[in-house]
Design brief:
With 179 residues, the protein is of the alpha/beta class. It is 26% helix and 17% strand. The chain has an eight-stranded parallel beta sheet with strand order 6-5-4-3-2-1-7-8, with helices on both faces. Strand 3, helix 2 and strand 4 form a beta-alpha-beta unit. The protein is globular. The chain starts with a strand and ends in a 10-residue tail after the last strand. The model has no long low-confidence stretch (mean pLDDT 92).
């Protein structure tokens, strides 16, 4: 299974290479490059509110519980997972650990969907020049907290290993070195 993060190193060629070779989870705006993905995930209600109403996507949609998500989820056919904390790997398929970012959460979803090997693309966890994402920046306010996200991924190492799940970070440029 391939998890597509939106880092500035992500290329359309990398995404196209995945098509038909693996199941793909598009994290938020990566759906622009992979409208054919199997799964679309966003842990941000703001993202669903901004893009969801006009989004043409037939695959599985997931979000995580937060204030107002139930209302948005019912109108956009989003499966809502329980928030079970910040760190580690949730094994109950109705829940998800957050790692405070959607890329971390996508790894949990890949596990829930039965992945034995997870490939990460666009998991840069850093700004390239002035670009935090392959598309630039979000149209709604966000802070640059990549440095806070990186250490949280390490909390996935032991649980993934115990389950026999391999994670390979194939991002072209990355500050995420634990995989």
């Amino acid at each position: 299974m391939v998890c597509l993060g939106s880092g500035p190193s992500l290329t359309p060629e990398d995404v196209d290479f995945c098509r038909g070779r693996a199941r793909v989870i598009a994290v938020k705006d990566t759906i622009r490059l992979a409208p054919w993905a199997d799964v679309l995930y966003s842990g941000e209600i703001k993202w669903w509110q901004h893009y969801g109403p006009t989004l043409a996507f037939d695959g599985l949609r997931y979000g995580i519980e937060c204030e107002g998500m139930a209302r948005v989820a019912s109108s956009l056919n989003i499966g809502v997972l329980r928030n079970t904390g910040f760190i580690g790997l949730e094994t109950d398929p109705s829940g998800l650990r957050t790692g405070k970012n959607s890329g971390y959460q996508a790894i949990g979803i890949a596990r829930h969907l039965g992945a034995r090997r997870i490939v990460l693309l666009g998991y840069d966890m850093q700004v390239a020049g002035s670009q935090p994402h392959f598309f630039g920046d979000h149209p709604y306010p966000r802070s640059n907290v990549f440095r806070d996200f990186v250490p949280l991924f390490e909390t996935l190492l032991a649980p993934l290993k115990a389950l026999g799940i391999a994670v390979v970070n194939c991002s072209r440029e990355t500050a995420l070195t634990c995989f």
